[in-house]
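call fold(seq) -> tokens
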Amino acid sequence: MSRFRLLPPAFVAFLVTAGVAFAQDAAPKKSGVSFLDAIKASGVIGAIIILMSVVALALIIEHFMTIKREKLAPPEIVDEVEELFAEGNYQEALEVCESNPTYYTRVVAAGIRKLGHPFETIEKAVEEMEDEETIRLMQKIGWLSLIAGIGPMMGLFGTVLGMVGAFGTIASAGQGGVNPADFAGDIQLALVTTLEGLMVAIPTTAFFAYFRNRVTTVSIEIGAMVEDLFERFRGVE
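ret:
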């Protein structure tokens, strides 16, 4: 199996997008304007889009580090809680959960607090906490969706602004005509900001979809673990 098949599809999409950009800048130039010069020409709007890409990259790295089963349900904590349940030390298990707040421990703690009630009550408490934790993770990755949506809009804003400037230059030229070089900068602004917006939106959307699927998968796995943990109380009055 090759190395690239081990990478998530979203990361491959990001590499491809970034590679296209660097390839364009590294290729022999037929004109006097490089890709980096074009980015500089995008002005404030381009700077905002680039800042958004930096924020998106920081979020992606953070999500790769935190949104995984080993972080949301640490194996050592899972083993300790299961051992305490097997021994019947539920109060000590609750203390372990409260001192190690994670997705898994918060869900388990919600169930422990309902011990002594009918199993349906315990089950409902666990399910509600699972939903709450999943929503919290979805809100966390939601910032990527926001950036992916705003990126093209900022690019469109730059496009409209550049076209307005170009037509303004043409209109002000009057009967004497206009030199294409006079409004080339405005056209460049329009095109480059659109490109920048898409370069941010495409990989960010891919990563958002990847992390959304990861949240769903991890939530199901942890839910099954907690369900097995409390299954011993089913039918107990």
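The radius of gyration is 27 Å.
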